[in-house]
Specification:
Layout lengths: L25 H39 L5 E15 L4 E14 L5 E13 L2 E9 L5 E3 L3 E14 L4 H13 L1 E16 L2 E2 L6 E9 L13 E2 L1 E3 L1
Antiparallel strand pairs: 1-2, 1-10, 2-6, 3-4, 3-5, 3-7, 7-8, 7-9, 9-11
Organism: Clitoria ternatea (Butterfly pea)
Protein name: Late embryogenesis abundant protein LEA-2 subgroup domain-containing protein
Keywords: Membrane, Transmembrane, Transmembrane helix
Length: 229
Amino acid sequence: MADNKQPHLNGAYYGPAIPPVQQPSYNHRRRRNCCGCLFRIFWKILVALIVLVGLAILIFWLVVQPRTFKFYVNEADLSQFEYHTSNNTIHYNMVLNFTARNPNKKLNIYYDKVEALAFYEDARFGNYDVITHLNSFRQYKKSTSAMSGVFAGERVLVLDDDQIAKFNEDNNAGAFDIYVKLYFRIRFRLGDVISNDYKPKVKCHIRVPLSSNNATPTRFQTTKCDVDF
């Protein structure tokens, strides 16, 4: 009778051998390393450009020291300012003399256009082209230039009861709170280089006395305006 016994296994039996884990190919690792290198190079270039631009701006500011122009209302003559409630019409005649100061040591300023709007109680009653292409000019560094605006005519101006009460109060006091807003179009010049257009706004809050008929000039205090770029 044949012996059917299984062969004796000496030691532990672990089953079939597990194949080794396949390592990433050399080409895959190289592509991944190249992508990382490119990202690091791009980041270094971007940081260098930001630093260079910042240094250029800082050097320009230290050398040129650009400053905004200064603007004043130094004279005002209000010979007529009458409001008729029957037809909601205001009659006005006002002349303002302005002064623009360029405080820069290296920059000249071209005044290409200046438009002035006059308001009373937040209602616009007049406008005037102070500077046009016909009288535009170049203002040299560290210099002062004069401008003027003439507001004259009549305009329909609807005022509510509170605004009419304020008008009567100012009329009795002989002086009116007037707000003038000026729109500029200017350019700067450094050597032979001329900048693009800049459009700052100037806001002037002034109290203008009503001129008297006698020979004594009406006193007006010079007012510095706010310049907003």
